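To illustrate the input format used throughout this study, we show a single complete record. The first block contains the structure-token representation of the backbone; no residue identities are included at this stage. The design step must infer an amino acid for every position from geometry alone.
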């Protein structure tokens, strides 16, 4: 639905829609109107006006998230528009702010914040071309290096070299942009635009390179660290990382699959695990932890009990938790604060139903996101599940793909979903009766799409009708067969695929060499 625009905003749109006139007139525009004109230009994708507004920015800070977010004059939030045209204009405008301002001595800009940009699946901008986190990392690094060269080549006023602007950004580094980002970070002291990494994501990167770049980043500013997929970080490397670098502000930590494997622990490894737990305890701001696909059977208490702050987000999907782990979680201080919980890949009804529901009752007043994919939840468990979820009146997202549930059980659940006032997003499995008889769960990737699509569409329609008849069209229900949208994965999936093939090839070569030796 259309969002109301104030008269001021409509005037701003009219002003910037004539780009040539707007650019010529900027010098006579009142400074407090720049934010308004920026949002109007962004909405209309007026790249040249955006560039000139940033190049002549008269204020102390330039916070993209706030400028594009909900404002008095236009309430629509544009911060999820990662429009390539607009963002490139912002960043080149920033470079030219340093180079071209007629009087560098009176420049006010001190902080640029790019962290409020949200990467989403559906883009509403006209150009339909996005600039994701990886591309923003690459472009900023490139512009910083260009700026250093240009400053060396041109006759700038001495004041220009005194300009120092902190650029807060969420960096995303892979093998492909690694060299560029490293160069930009190494030469940070020579550049007026100071890259300040607030969140860092590493993927498809050799371990040695990860350790090198993490030391170039000012870890004292880091609030979020994601080490994912193709970074072969194991427990001993994690201990080295935590012993060599201090993360005082870290709030969120994601570790790659198989960082921990307690199946083959020696006494020395147990000690290492204790040390890692203690190091996590020193991170007093840590409230989000993602340990998915690590083998952690019986060790959850050892890792989580040293934490000083209760966790708000915990992902323990496919971690082979046992009853002792679940009992610790249910009785720990974390249980009363969990806003997001992922326990996918555990057969909850079989292994620890009562302990799980105890955990659910403790977190019910604050729980917003619950993910229980591939948890062997069957028709016979639906009443128990409804009973457990009933107190979770703040639940906004519930994802339970991959569970063997019939269409009848799903209808029962959807009738209950209508009673959860805050619910906005549901990801439900393909009903069991759409698959051939005898299908086994968890369903392998090859069989995942082999279901009666027509029957599924008909059932999905009935489920949506249940929501519609209860006036709950605000709830979005879907079945993303291969998981939810991940902006970072989407942006780098070609590189990720190539990296996986390379790893597979290397493994195969090692195996062939070993086999030849044996022969």
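Output of the design step:
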């Amino acid at each position: 639905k259309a969002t109301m625009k104030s008269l001021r905003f409509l005037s701003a749109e009219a002003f910037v829609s004539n780009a040539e006139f707007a650019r010529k007139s900027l010098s006579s525009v009142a400074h407090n109107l720049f934010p308004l004109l920026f949002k109007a230009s962004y909405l209309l994708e007026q790249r040249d006006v955006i560039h000139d507004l940033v190049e002549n920015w008269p204020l102390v800070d330039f916070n993209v998230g706030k400028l594009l977010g909900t404002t008095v004059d236009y309430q629509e939030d544009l911060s999820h528009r990662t429009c390539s045209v607009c963002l490139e204009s912002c960043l080149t405008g920033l470079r030219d702010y340093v180079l071209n301002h007629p009087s560098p001595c009176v420049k006010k800009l001190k902080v640029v914040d790019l962290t409020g940009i949200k990467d989403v699946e559906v883009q509403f901008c006209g150009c339909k071309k996005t600039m994701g986190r990886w591309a923003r990392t690459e472009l900023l690094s490139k512009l910083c290096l260009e700026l250093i060269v240009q400053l060396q080549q041109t006759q700038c006023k001495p004041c220009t070299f005194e300009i120092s602007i902190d650029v807060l950004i969420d960096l995303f580094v892979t093998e492909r942009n690694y060299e560029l980002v490293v160069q930009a970070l190494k030469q940070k002291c020579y550049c007026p635009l100071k890259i300040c990494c607030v969140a860092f994501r590493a993927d498809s990167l050799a371990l040695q390179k990860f350790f090198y770049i993490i030391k170039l980043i000012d870890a004292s500013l880091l609030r979020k660290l994601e080490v994912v997929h193709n970074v072969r970080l194991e427990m001993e490397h994690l201990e080295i990382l935590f012993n060599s670098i201090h993360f005082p502000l870290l709030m969120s930590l994601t570790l790659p699959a198989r960082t921990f494997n307690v199946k083959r622990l020696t006494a020395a490894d147990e000690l290492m695990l204790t040390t890692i737990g203690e190091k996590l305890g020193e991170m007093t701001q840590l409230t989000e932890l993602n340990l998915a696909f690590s083998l952690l059977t019986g060790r959850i208490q050892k890792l989580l009990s040293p934490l000083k702050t209760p966790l708000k987000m915990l992902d323990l999907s496919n971690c082979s938790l046992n009853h002792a782990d679940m009992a610790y979680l249910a009785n720990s201080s974390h249980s009363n604060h969990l806003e997001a919980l992922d326990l996918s890949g555990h057969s909850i009804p079989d292994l620890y139903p009562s302990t799980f529901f105890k955990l659910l009752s403790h977190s019910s007043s604050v729980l917003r996101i619950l993910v229980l994919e591939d948890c062997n939840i069957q028709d016979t468990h639906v009443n128990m599940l409804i009973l457990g979820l009933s107190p979770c009146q703040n639940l906004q997202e519930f994802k339970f793909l991959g569970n063997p549930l019939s269409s009848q059980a799903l209808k029962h659940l959807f009738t209950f979903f209508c009673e959860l006032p805050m619910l906005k997003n549901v990801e439900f499995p393909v009903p069991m009766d759409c698959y051939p008889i005898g299908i086994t769960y968890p369903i392998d990737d090859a069989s995942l799409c082999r279901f009666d699509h027509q029957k599924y569409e008909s059932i999905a329609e009935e489920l949506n009708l249940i929501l519609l008849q209860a006036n709950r069209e605000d709830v979005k229900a879907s079945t993303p067969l291969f998981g939810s949208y991940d902006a970072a994965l989407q942006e780098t999936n070609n590189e990720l695929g190539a990296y996986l093939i390379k790893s597979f090839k290397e493994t195969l070569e090692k195996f062939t060499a070993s086999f030849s030796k044996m022969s």
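Structural context for interpreting the output: The first strand starts at residue 61 and ends at 63. The CA atoms of residues 110 and 356 lie 49 Å apart.
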